[in-house]
Write a structure and sequence with these properties.
About 30% of the residues are buried. A hairpin with a 4-residue loop joins strand 5 and strand 6. Strands 7-3-10-9-8 form a five-stranded antiparallel beta sheet, with helices on both faces. The protein has a three-stranded antiparallel beta sheet with strand order 4-5-6. The protein has a two-stranded antiparallel ribbon with strand order 1-2. The protein is of the alpha+beta class and about 350 residues long. It has three domains: about 90 residues, Arc Repressor Mutant, subunit A (Orthogonal Bundle); about 160 residues, 2-Layer Sandwich (Beta-Lactamase), CATH 3.30.450; about 90 residues, 2-Layer Sandwich (Enolase-like, domain 1), CATH 3.30.390.
């Protein structure tokens, strides 16, 4: 980032203007921008030959690229990074955009999950990208826990919370589990569960298992340990990732290579193996963060950008994140305030429910 800032400061006014207009033209149209186009929009009258020389210098600096044999240029990933860090003008949230986001919460009588689904859909609709909403797990005290066998390698844990909320979570039980071992595991958990959150319960159970191994048969102990790992294990700190607007990334006459990249992106999302990292990326900086192309380790798709912001509860604790994925030529100046506002809205919604 600092190298880009230094590079930008060393550029003269003409080079900065050519660079900015190429990036803005590319973001608007997705097409290479040529010297003849720039001669009509530059603040000072300069020849197409002069602009071509400037563009060649910018290409040598690694900020622009020539994708085809045409004279047009597009920004490189480094160029987009420098534009976002040094030249991007982020406006205020458009009132019409704000109204559409606010309307998604009108008459919300179907719970937080439904409201977050609607917010995700609104976000993808407004930005023409795919929206991501990482939601927190329910952290109310537990009232009751039950295990239900779904087959040899699948089981369901039913969690009843003190506030009336009920959750069903599927996990893989240990081999050889029986109805009696599942009942024994549930009874063991329920003896300590009431009045404790899942996080608190995990700590208590780990301590109890160590001190009371003789009282638990091996299978019940494995049920307890494996069930708890599903709830509070590393990388599983959040309940789910809501993804909306996939079709937005598939439109626009994408070629086969683009479609394959998009399929890879959604494979990564659905596996959720790095969801914890998604939130960590958001936590590293204040407010909205922008990740361009391969800067974003979470996704294999290099030809995309992620605009993401964490949201917080009333105690200023980060609970999750809201983001938009799209092509690198996203309209960052418009999308940043939309993501920022949506994250604030989700934070208030979570706090009110809390």
């Amino acid at each position: 980032m600092s190298d880009n800032s230094q590079l930008l400061s060393e550029m003269n006014a003409r080079s900065r203007e050519v660079f900015r207009r190429v990036v803005e033209g590319y973001i608007e149209t997705g097409e290479p921008v040529g010297s003849r186009t720039l001669t009509r929009t530059m603040n000072e009258k300069v020849s197409a030959a002069t602009i071509r020389n400037v563009m060649q210098d910018l290409e040598y600096m690694g900020l622009l690229d020539s994708p085809h044999v045409s004279a047009g240029r597009v920004p490189t990933q480094s160029g987009l990074r420098m534009f976002v860090d040094g030249l991007l003008e982020v406006g205020n949230l458009d009132q019409q955009d704000q109204r559409k986001i606010d309307e998604t919460l009108g008459g919300n009588d179907r719970g937080v999950g439904d409201a977050l689904d609607r917010l995700g859909s609104a976000l993808s609709g407004l930005t023409h990208g795919a929206s991501l909403v990482l939601t927190p797990k329910h952290e109310a005290p537990i009232k009751h826990i039950e295990f239900v066998s779904l087959g040899p390698d699948r089981a369901l844990v039913v969690l009843v919370f003190a506030d009336g909320h009920v959750e069903n979570r599927v996990f893989t039980p240990p081999m050889g589990q029986t109805p009696s071992s599942m009942r024994e595991a549930a009874n063991f958990l329920n003896a300590f569960a009431e009045g404790r959150t899942l996080g608190e319960l995990a700590t208590v159970i780990e301590r109890e298992i160590k001190s009371r191994k003789q009282e638990l048969n091996t299978l019940a102990q494995a049920m307890v340990e494996q069930g708890l790992a599903e709830w509070v294990g590393e990388g599983d700190q959040h309940e789910r990732l809501i993804v909306r607007g996939r079709a937005n990334l598939l439109g626009g006459g994408s070629d086969e290579e683009d479609l394959e990249r998009i399929r890879t992106l959604f494979d990564d999302l659905e596996r959720k193996r790095d969801i914890a990292e998604f939130l960590e990326l958001a936590e590293e900086g204040e407010g909205v963060r922008i990740f361009i192309g391969s800067e974003n380790k979470l996704f294999s798709l290099s030809g995309s950008s992620l605009v993401v912001s964490p949201y917080m509860n009333a105690d200023r604790k980060i609970m999750g994140a809201v983001g938009v994925i799209g092509p690198t030529r996203l309209n960052y100046g418009r999308i940043v305030p939309i993501v920022d506002y949506t994250a604030q809205l989700v934070g208030r919604l979570i706090s009110d429910q809390g």
